[in-house]
Amino acid sequence: MIQGTGSDVGKSLIVAGLARVFADRGLRVRPFKPQNMSNNAAVTADGGEIGRAQALQARAARVPLSVHMNPVLLKPQSEVGSQVVVQGRMVATVKARDYQAWKPRLLASVLDSFAHLKAQADLVLVEGAGSASEVNLRAGDIANMGFARATGTPVILVGDIDRGGVIASLVGTRVVIDPEDAAMIRGFLVNRFRGDPSLFADGMRLIAERTGWEALGLVPHLPEAARLPAEDVLGLAGSEARGEGAVTVAVPVMPRISNFDDLDPLRAEPGVRVVLVRPGQTIPPEAALVLLPGSKTTIDDLDVLRGEGWDIDIRAHWRRGGHVLGLCGGYQMLGRRIADPHGIEGPPREVPGLGLLDVETVLTDDKSLVSVTGTSVADGLPFAGYEMHVGQTRGPDAARPLLRFADGRPDGAVSADGRVHGTYVHGVFADDAQRGAWLARLGARSAGASYEAGVEAALDRLARHIEAHVDCDRLLALARETEPGL
Fold first, then answer.
1. Dihedral of CA 201/202/207/209: which sign?
2. Is 472 among the residues known to form the active site?
3. Is 323 labeled as catalytic in the residue annotation?
4. Which of 27, 165, 341, 437 has its CA 20 to 30 A from that of 138?
């Protein structure tokens, strides 16, 4: 089990790298995260949803996605409340304080999923959540030491030297956690090192002496890891503009942005400059495309969009001849009206949309979670992606669909002037032909590189990097101590 001294210390990518390392050695590997909190999710082969990080880890292990890889997924809807998804299906919406009482009852589902994966695998790589030192949340824990203790799984603790204070964070974890929890930790890794590794040799020895844990690796910063999808919105930090291209794509960043890995293929294009528009900023007038991404709470995020004045910017952009694209929740925002009669996102209400598409959306309690294929209506190019949304959208502009599924159903809408588009499908830009067609529409040219091949190459590079700097043989030996038959 890979735990961390804090959030965003690199646990997810270390697990992904290890998954590829051991899969390449011929082992049947499965990733597992007992509890995740993220609005960036993926659709599984068994018809549910899991965190995007576990989807990447499964890809690294070269196995299909399963709801059992992330049995508890929390999808924040507000600062104090989240939807609770258990084994792929939403079961409730709870406040953070109330969730503490929920955790013990969820342990059975976590252990059931873990047993399911163990039956399929030679090796299960478990990722913890947040910080191992959150002793205030230890009672009833299912994400870190509570899970490790319940299953007898040995733990490796990861610290991030790039953020500073890594010695204190690792040694401090040893000080504050329960001695029996500390005994579960068998070693530590220091991640994201920059410079001459010999300069931190004394630091590694000091940590080992103060904690009694084995030093299992000092992992240098790997720039190529930026090619891999980020798990949560922290992955967007420091990336307000990416690329030097002549074509600018502007993306308003709203509080409950979801499935923002839709942006990654565009950000990888050298001819495209993706600008993330933060609160207090204006949408750049040079933008060729304004892209409204998915949202976990469409109506609340639409309120934020209006509060920032971005609705005025978007209309001005459209009047100048610019293009607008809405994905999922962004598609719903572009219509004339959004109604939530059953209180799916909060109190029942109805709000006007941006009015750039002649459609209306009614939020319903049935959720579409399915992988889809088909062709784009305008040019017949194939696409592959997935749906993950609540609500039905209908209206005159939906008679001009953007996409058509393989079973003949239409999806999305296009405005009469052909410059405003909406779709419920995520992942369209990952298709090289579709991305190229969109860039041509904006007056740019794709570099022609395969996005998916780039992700695979980055996973291979991550695996070789991990193998060079982490004692993978020792990690496997620790697993064998727990499971003698491995």
1. positive
2. no
3. no
4. 165
